[in-house]
Amino acid sequence: MTETREIRLRRLTMRSMRRGIREMDILLMRYVKARLDTLSDAELDVYDALLEENDQDLYQWVSGQVAPPARYGALIEDIASAPGEL
């Protein structure tokens, strides 16, 4: 059975807020609120894959401590610059 866009967005939202590291919960939920519903299906594919990555790596990428893999570069930049309060 194929997942509808609405269900996919809900699933990605839940995965964004239950990361294990509070800082990543906050950063990713800020991004979800600002941009998730505007992403194309291809962009959602990349975001879905990003959520499979380790929180320690994600935090280092978003905070600029370590350069992200090329496939996530634009997304990480977008997450880091998403509007909203931390």
TrEMBL record:
Domain of life from the UniProt record: Bacteria
Annotated Pfam families: Sdh5
Chaperone as UniProt keyword: yes
Keyword Chaperone: yes
Coiled coil regions in record: none
Entry keywords, A to Z: Chaperone
Family per record: Belongs to the SdhE FAD assembly factor family.
Name under which the protein is recorded: FAD assembly factor SdhE
